[in-house]
Amino acid sequence: MKKTTVINSELSTVIAGMGHMDWLSIGDAGMPVPMGTKKIDLALTKQLPSFQDVLKNILAELEVQKIYLADEIKTQNPEQLAAIKELLPNVEIEYMPHSQLKKDLAQTHAFVRTGEMTPFSNIILESGVTF
């Protein structure tokens, strides 16, 4: 049995297969996922698991060099933005319109759906290197 943090087999496989500058996305329960994008659905019920719980779990195994967030998170969900910045204090952030973020999900290795029920709790993680 796997000893490290991410024990979901689908998610672990995606993370293990990522290379430098590949994208993985995490989002709230309502985020539409483009056809053809792998969807790893972890949502059980409202707020379970939370966006933050899933992000923390993934960050334990994925090196991240840059993140992409919707502009709207700044005004519509500043608490979530502050929590993201706390988890990733030295990582570059690029903001874009939510409509563009949704389109960019088609370029990710997978979208991880959480039970999060707060607006604009969506992120694209760009993988870095560990050397």
Characterization of this structure:
- The protein is of the alpha/beta class.
- It has one domain (9-127): 3-Layer(aba) Sandwich (RbsD-like fold), CATH 3.40.1650.10.
- The chain contains 5 helices and 6 strands, in the order αββαβααβαββ.
- It has helices at 9-16, 51-59, 73-76, 78-87, 98-104, and strands spanning 23-27, 39-41, 64-70, 92-96, 111-113, 123-127.
- The radius of gyration is 14 Å and the shape is globular.
- The two termini are 27 Å apart.
- It is an enzyme of class 5 (isomerase).
- Its EC number is 5.4.99.62.
- Keywords: Carbohydrate metabolism, Cytoplasm, Isomerase.
- InterPro entries: D-ribose_pyranase, RbsD-like_sf, RbsD_FucU.
For the record, give the distance between the C-alpha atoms at the N and C termini, rounded to a whole number. Answer: 27 Å
Q: Count up the domains.
A: 1
What is the number of strand segments? 6
CATH class group: Alpha Beta
Structural class: alpha/beta
- Contiguous uncertain segments of 5+ residues: none
CATH topology: RbsD-like fold
Function: Catalyzes the interconversion of beta-pyran and beta-furan forms of D-ribose.
InterPro entries: D-ribose_pyranase (IPR023064), RbsD-like_sf (IPR023750), RbsD_FucU (IPR007721)
Protein name: D-ribose pyranase
Subcellular location: Cytoplasm
